[in-house]
Amino acid sequence: MISARKLRHAAALVAFAVFVFSAGIADAANFAGTWAFSGSNGAGEMVAPVCVLRQNGSKIGGSCKGPNGIGSAAGLVNGRAIGLQWHVIATTSRGTSGIVTFKGVWGSDGDIRGTWVHSAAPAVIGPFTAQKL
């Protein structure tokens, strides 16, 4: 038999879990929209795509177009943090096909700041900033 005390305890735990889960959803940033990324790394490489992103819960997807490449983008959102992979297809002789990975946080100023790396040079990491257009 379940005692009234155990029942109240279980109900309190469920209420707390619902509160915590709801708060997490409310705090999740909405990264949907058009973003201009800009960054460089220690090897003199630059990245400057404009990405059109859509968000469904914690999943993010879309496409990016840079001066030397285009391709799809996909990733995950965790609160105000984003991890995004751009699958680049080179469109010029200066472009390098591969995967550019962005990891950043949406700041209170409205910009995303973090680091990026290209799969062609995985040891070379550089900073980036993204601004919503």
What does the model show?
This protein is of the alpha+beta class. The chain has 2 domains: 1-28; 31-132, Lipocalin. It contains 1 helix and 9 strands; from the N terminus they run αβββββββββ. The chain has an 8-stranded antiparallel beta barrel. The longest helix is centred in the first third of the chain and has 24 residues, at 4-27. It is globular, with a radius of gyration of 20 Å. Mean pLDDT is 85; it is low at 4-26.
Oligomer: single chain
Measured between the Cα atoms of the first and last residue, the distance is 60 Å
| Structural domains: how many | 2
- What is the strand content? over 45%
CATH class of the largest domain: Mainly Beta
Question: How many beta-strand runs?
Answer: 9
Number of helices: 1
Task: Summarize the model shown.
The protein is α+β, with helices and mostly antiparallel strands and 133 residues long. Helix content is 18%, strand content 51%.
Task: Summarize the topology.
Blueprint: H1 4-27, E1 33-40, E2 46-47, E3 50-56, E4 59-65, E5 69-78, E6 81-90, E7 98-106, E8 112-118, E9 125-132
Antiparallel strand pairs: 1-2, 1-3, 1-9, 3-4, 4-5, 5-6, 6-7, 7-8, 8-9
Q: What characteristics describe this protein?
A:
133 residues, globular, 8-stranded antiparallel barrel, Lipocalin, single chain, alpha+beta, 51% strand
